[in-house]
Amino acid sequence: MTSLQTQSSNGHPVSEYSPAAENIGGEGWEELESITWQGRTGKEIRAALKAEDYAGIVKLLSENDLFAGKRADRQRRDYLKSLQSCVALIPLHAEGLKSALEILLQAELTGRETLSHKNLKAFRRLMADQLALDLAVPPVGFTVPGNAPQLILELGLFLIGNVHLKSKDWLRWYLRINSYAQSIFEADAPLNSDRHTSLERVLILAEARLLLGLLLPHQKHAGRLLRAGRRSYADELDAVTDLDGLPHCSLIPNLAVWLGSFVRGQHLAGPTGKPLLKKSAQARWESLVQTLASFTTAQGTCPLGGSSPEQWSEILSLALPARTRKAVPLWVEQTRQALGHPLKKAASSGRKRTSLKTDLTAAAQSDWAHLANLRSNWYCGSDQICLNSGQGTVELLISALGLPVFSGKWATSIRVAGEAITLNDEWNTLCWYNEEEGDFIELRNQAGPVTLDRQIYLSRNDHLAILADTISCEENTPLEMTWSLPLAEKWKARKDSATRAFQLKQQRHVVNCVPLSLPSTPVEQAAGTFSVHSDELHFQQTGQHRFSQILLLEWSPARAGQPADWNPLTITEARQVLSPETAFASRCRIGDGQWLYLRNLDYNGQPRAVLGLHTDAETIIGEFPSSGEVEKLVEVQFEEDDE
Questions:
Q1: Is 53:12 a contact under the CB 8 Å cutoff?
Q2: Rounded Cα distance, 272 and 85, in Å
Q3: How far is Cα 298 from Cα 384, in angstroms, rounded to an integer?
Q4: What is the mean pLDDT of the chain?
């Protein structure tokens, strides 16, 4: 048996439980002899193999502490935290691996340099038992990707905790990892096919190859694994994000786990002195992080789904830039605050902070990704509308002053002549405005003979939103449309006794819900109904051939509690009054605020007039300042004018 070593070759202390402390006999000897070793250490390994120095070979192989030194302590802890997220987000069958990870985390997060004697015994026992159960995935015939998260956990645990293992278990585990490396080479081709998800590809082709290259540094193919892992990270980033950093909606269910893999890749690459991504890919990664920060709510949650608030907070905070050269962007400060990880005051003293004007807009949108985020600013109390239109039914979140008001599926049902029409799974983006006054998006769903155009507008400075659907049919036939918008928790609805409007209240916050396309007074006959119950807003409307269904939401603190009044407007063309099937307009007033919504449903090329405004636009959203003249906030032209 060899003597205990107090220092490794790089000068860092070696645990008294180092694998080099035991003689292991010749188990696994033939497999070690079949490996092609490289470098100076490779020569020493070959010499040890020739001399049958079993303990010496394990000692040489085990001197590979990636997170050595005080500077790497934080990276080590952050890596363990992100590894823990992989366990929390995806159920694993290997209980021993999860329990061992908890032991390591407890030691790291309490500031201990090594495991306590009690925890060490527990860690060793768990690993020995798990090895007896063939750990997470059998290395023989491993082609994958079924248990990819378990493979990542196993490799990560070996990277962090291998120094605490007895030599016999250490070598058994090392030989398994060598088998994984060989199998992954064979799995490259099938994993590149469309049959596997982005998550499976990033865990196996990128993270696992990067880990294996770091765990097998003395083998000939280690460098190839490292390069392939880095390249796969860049390829996957290119495949599932657009140039502005928006992830494709198909990634949403596994977004946090996928993001965690990139976070771990950054931590793993850091100590090597070589960045994970090249310049162009790194810029794309930074855009992705900023985009995900913009979607994050004031409560630190991801409205796109796929993770709990705690998990999203942990992963995104690890992905945010830890420091900048000259100034801390406002978006980083505000996101950290929302996540519950604000920058320390001591670290912020004397530093610069960028102003709101110099920060990029908080809004983001991508036709390709089928995602949109309308957001007034970067502050935690911002107004926000998040949309996911890539899964058939539109998923949305509407936040007023940072508080969620509606969250979930925007259920929409349509009937044509009494028969239900199924909406198409594909929503196409017609236009996107990202202006100083507000953000606006228009989507289209073509379902057989029915065309549904959906418009969403969010003001940047007036605490106002408009949701509008325009439905039209090829035939002049009866139409019916119904909305169900899920109400967030803690809001109480109160109907306005004088109008059809409702008010939502939560503490001092008030949201006016105004059905602009219905008459304001209940005594007037209406072609529809409007109500708000404990858990949803219900809006139903009927018409002939074509009509618009419009909801105005308003929540300005300066106008809190003030009722809404609105009325339809007369629209003329060549002094002839147009029917509601041709054009619709409504004017709404709440306190000192007044707004106009105009939608031309049918167009013959002639300008039309409303309230002294002459226009040939398809849609106008405007406000009335003190001058009394309409000031356009949004103006959408007909498709023919864009050709």
A1: no
A2: 23
A3: 10
A4: 85
